[in-house]
């Protein structure tokens, strides 16, 4: 039976995942359900297993134990192109070959839909044009990627993932190294992809206020386990932030949005 990612209803589910790169697990017996059609932020201190979890969710890392399910089916059972049609991954620190244009980069996102000798078809071009439009890069399609600003370059990589036409996007620290304007640019795009495109966006983030303002659902990790998960207002509490980050944080209500605002006060004694 073939897998049609457009029919996925159950979201992405991790069942009793144990993950690592050697004998010592980084993540141990982790289970989590990531709801469909939401912007989900994965938060936690450095080294807690956030990126490792994202690799497992995207099928880039095989679990030592457990499994990841999409629409009730183990992603390990999907072929590589089937998986790429269902799950789009933007890893950290991606760099294009020198001289590659924005459109040429975005065209690479069509590989899951094409055979090795398939001609470029109208549907491929439509997907590329749509991804460029969604990311505001239509006018820059012929520009070399390396001359773009940080925010524009990140949007180009996101456009490549969008061209895959995958219903689930996984992004590993998409705002790292960007200035404030470009961070807001990328996060605003993520929000629109969920609200207007119906996609599921799962992003590893570091900034608590960015997560509080833009995400719908939060997964908070510490030392390879999940400390809290759920809606932003439920998960981002003073006690949970203290447990995860070891920091005294005041959680206030943003008067403009009603969402939480996180104001760090001091480092808590260990």
Instruction: Identify the strand order in the major beta sheet.
Output: 6-7-8-3-9-10
Distance between the termini: 53 Å
What CATH calls the topology is Rossmann fold
Mean pLDDT: 92
What CATH first level would be assigned?
Alpha Beta
Please identify the structural class as seen in this structure.
Answer: alpha/beta
How would the global form be characterised? Answer: globular
Count of all domains: 1
Beta fraction of the residues? Answer: 25-35%
Oligomer: single chain
CATH architecture verdict: 3-Layer(aba) Sandwich
**Which H/E pattern describes the elements?**
EEEHEEHEHHHEHEHEEHHEE
Counting DSSP H or I runs of 4 or more residues, the number of helices is 9
Percent helix, as a range, is 25-40%
How many β strands by DSSP?
12
> Major beta sheet, specifics?
6 strands, mixed
User: Please, what is the CATH homologous superfamily?
Assistant: P-loop containing nucleotide triphosphate hydrolases
Radius of gyration: 19 Å
Instruction: Identify low-pLDDT runs.
Output: 1-9
